[in-house]
Design brief:
about 300 residues; alpha/beta; eight-stranded parallel beta barrel; two-stranded antiparallel ribbon; 9 helices; about 15% strand
Length: about 300
Amino acid sequence: MRIGLALPQVGGLCDPTLLTTAIRRAEELGYTSAWVNDRVLWPTNPLVPYPASADGALPTVWQSNLDALDVLSFAAAQSTSLRLGSSVLVLPFYNPVLLARRLTTIDILSGGRLIAGFGLGWSPDEYRAAGVSMVGQAQRYEDTLDVLDKIWSGGAVEHTSPFVTFAESVFSPHQRPPVYLAAYTAEGLARIARRADGWIPAGVPIAAVAEMRQAISGMATDAGRDPAQIGCIIRANVHLADGVPDGDERTSFYGSRNQVRADIERCADLGVDEVFIDTQFSPGGDRPDHYLEQLEDFATLIRPTATA
């Protein structure tokens, strides 16, 4: 199983020197991939609770957050072998024509190392700021995927929809990166089965990942696709803490270093293609020294085949 890492992008990690150091050291250590997140703002009075925290509070480190696409461009210039992924771009925020152009450029300049990870997002504050309605977000999401597929297929293409319209045009150069989708609902898993190259779960218990992958495989078969062609890359949102009892109630990737390591090894046993590790939201995780320490520590999980 391959091991990746989340690039330093939030809080006290927003530093170009640290980003360069992390990228180059990750390549030396044999990490396979490097990933960015996509946040627009940090509302002081959010309209809805943050779904990934027990109390609904947004992580304060998100008050500082470097732009996802610009960090990917920077990482492309600073690296030679790392695959570069987004986990995930909130797809409805973006004009699909302009996004296709930017992602194509990053993929070309990186030598074909981009992984385009997309999701629907959850924050009405961010939707409002982006000037996009949450009403019909799933339809907008599908439509954007349609536009990207058309542009990345090459030749003269056109598109007409309630969301974006363009006359028959040629978009060149064009280059399609693999598309991975975040999804948790039956509708989202079916979308992966129909049209994605892979799934990026985050915050899903490891035991549930196996069950949901089976569901994707069944739906892919029904859609006439080979389930073996649909990858799975898990985002491990690591929270290091001592004294967390083992058992079914323990959140995946939450606990001591040994517990987190065991969780990652369990992903390998389930046949997951890759796990990428994000320690930025662990206590002290936005300190540069802590980030680099974890970069070294989790590199011991990298197996000799990881860079093959």
